[in-house]
Amino acid sequence: MPRNIPLTERAKNIALRKLEEWDSLGYDCNFILDHATLSGWRGLYLPPETPRRQVQQKPTSDAQQMSLVELAIKESQKTGRSADAILAELRRPA
């Protein structure tokens, strides 16, 4: 049952940060948004079948590396795949 509760500014900022991170990793954010909308979700999640585009490898800061590690761990918990394998995939150009 859908609820018509508007997103708070904080929720919008969190969603935008997630989308920016996924976009920087080469994920198709339009696919993510379409998937969330069609599924009736209020939050954003990275579906395993999300297409990726080729991205140029950029030097990453320690904070960005930690963000990649955290994303790999979350994906590992969701999918049961090895976090190391996911991390290698995230670091590899698409």
Descriptive overview:
With 94 residues, the protein is mainly alpha-helical. It has one domain (9-91). It is built from 4 helices and no strands. Helix 3 packs across helix 4. The mean pLDDT is 82.
Topology:
Blueprint: H1 9-24, H2 29-39, H3 62-79, H4 83-91
Radius of gyration: 14 Å
Q: Structural class given helices, strands, pairing? A: mainly alpha
> Helical region count?
4
Beta-strand percent range: under 5%
Provide the number of structural domains.
Answer: 1
Helix content: 55-70%
Order of helices and strands: HHHH
Shape, principal axes of CA atoms: globular
Count every beta strand, where a strand is a DSSP E run of 2 or more residues. Answer: 0
Unreliable segments of 5+ consecutive residues: none
Separation, N- and C-terminal Cα atoms: 38 Å
Mind summarizing the main beta sheet?
Answer: none
Structure in a nutshell:
The protein has 94 residues and is mostly helical. The protein is 57% helix and 0% strand. The protein is built from four helices and no strands.
Key features of this structure:
mainly alpha; 4 helices; single chain; globular
